[in-house]
Design goal:
By secondary structure, this protein is mainly beta. It is built from no helices and eleven strands. It starts with a strand and ends with a strand.
């Protein structure tokens, strides 16, 4: 059974930082790329950052480049998202999922999602 358990969110002031974690289970984590997604109130879930199975190749949406860093520890079946210089528009629930290639991009590999971790950026 595929499972994702996200943690590390919280309430932070603009400019603050958090480190999000996602522990995955139920599939061959070490050979599959992973992604972080977020969903803000009233908006669709969007892909934020993605990483290949080695951890050597990463990509980000334009709005978070230079501020967010995705990484992984295959020994711990964990993917991380370091979020720095947070802005109010980063407020969302953050989720992780394994990825699959879809066209020129990536899509969630599994229909199962975790509960996510809430990030709220407010003064």
């Amino acid at each position: 059974q595929v499972q994702f358990v996200e943690s590390g969110g919280g309430l932070v002031q603009p400019g603050g930082s958090l480190r999000l974690s996602c522990v995955a289970s139920g599939f061959a984590f070490s050979v599959i790329g992973m992604s972080w997604y977020r969903q803000a109130p009233g908006k669709e879930r969007e892909l934020v950052a993605t990483i290949d199975y080695t951890g050597g190749n990463t990509d980000y949406i334009e709005s978070v480049k230079g501020r967010f860093t995705i990484s992984r520890d295959n020994a711990k079946n964990t993917v991380y998202l370091q979020v720095n210089s947070l802005k109010p528009e980063d407020t969302a629930i953050y989720y992780c999922n394994a990825r699959k290639v879809l066209g020129s991009g990536y899509a969630p590999r599994f229909v199962s999602w975790g509960q996510g971790t809430q990030v709220t950026v407010s003064s």
